[in-house]
Design goal:
about 90 residues; YaeB-like fold; five-stranded mixed sheet
Length: about 90
């Protein structure tokens, strides 16, 4: 299934990539690969992740080895990535 990003998720991703590229340049390629793999997983198996308990219809997939989580919902035409969040921060 097609995966699309909301404007907020694109902003989150841009901020995260900028931070990692600047602060941890040696980890950048690995992070990008892990993010791409998570997005492919969501597209192929959207219900393979955990549902968020207090948000109906919202799913979350953690990025293994990196402290980020991808929050998304399954819409009829596509998977919508809602936001990408640092695991140590409080969810919006």
């Amino acid at each position: 299934m097609k995966v699309v990003f909301t404007a907020r998720a694109l902003g989150d991703l841009d901020e995260i990539l900028g931070y990692i590229r600047t602060t941890y340049p040696n980890a950048f390629a690995g992070f990008e690969a892990r993010m791409a793999a998570a997005i492919r997983r969501i597209g192929h198996w959207p219900e393979s992740a955990a549902q968020v308990a207090d948000r109906s219809g919202v799913w979350v997939v953690p990025l293994i080895r990196y402290p980020y989580k991808i929050f998304y919902r399954v819409a009829p035409a596509a998977i919508e990535v809602l936001y990408i969040h640092h695991a140590a921060r409080r969810e919006p």
